[in-house]
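Checklist before submission:
- one chain only
- standard amino acids only
- sequence pasted in full

Submission:
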Amino acid sequence: MEAGMLFGLGVGLLWLAVMITPRRHPRSQEIRTLIQAVIPHVPPQKSESPPSKWVFVGAGGLLLILGVILFSQTSYTMDLALRSVVVAFFAFGAVVMLLPLLIIVSIWRRILEAADRGDYSKAMQIAERLRFFNVSSMLFQKATIMLFAGHYDKAEQLFLEALAGDITSTESPVISMANLAWVMTRQGRYDEAERILHVAAEIHKISAGEIEAVYSNLAEVYLYQGIHPDEALHLAQLAYEAKNKGGIGKTVDRQVWGHILGNQAWALALMGKFEEAEAKLEAAFQKGDPNFAPGYAGVYYRAGRVKLLQGSYKEAQLHFETAVEIAPHSAYAQLSRQALESLLPV
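Returned file contents:
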């Protein structure tokens, strides 16, 4: 049994070395060319790098050798020894193989908990731990935290740094580009945002990624300007369909459901279809994630925008005030305060 434990742990450590080693995307140069066409001045990425894979390769190899030596000296019958190796391999090796995913999920959960409390400094500290796996992952999560907090200049810089990293098979630049465009939308740089989102959609065809974020954010480019509501509604519907086809993605980042449905309601209200807009708002509140206040505040903000278009100013005020109350340090609280100043669309 001890031999099997060592053997399984050794294989698991070798797999861990593979997991933390970025693998260049086979079409990385093509993707890089597309990115540079709309973001020509991407800054150099920071020099920090994750731990050397050779640490895990060496430890895994040593454990494999020890396992084989110990196995050769056992007095068990071959069948019993083989069974022990198999059992131990799955018991220990499989755990180590899953270790990167378990750690990443744990870190992201702690980031969300800190952001939900409005403690964005703590969330940034926790995100530093992702450096172990990939610097671009760490930069992306930090940028997302700054996005939640409404610190757009810092978020933009971090997204650009994340995009400067290697294009790998496991991390698509699509979501970074989508969020970068959202930052630009909030700064009123609509033309830049639209160009980036169209290129992100092209990259998605060869690099996967969260296309629902592209569709949803492109819809918002139009919604914040109050133009093309029919196209915005179409894009929000595409976002809904893409999210619904996402397998495990259907249950991850639940706040996205609220934003997509809220965008549909916003577009319908711009078209004067208020009854349909009300139905979408109700669905947005039901499918959004009330446990993540910085995201759920976005549902209240969109509800406020719908009520403004209906001419229901008291209800709009209530929604904006609720957004501020539940997530006072968030980006949507900033937007809601701006709306409350004049009770007019910002």
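Reviewer check: The chain has a mean pLDDT of 83.
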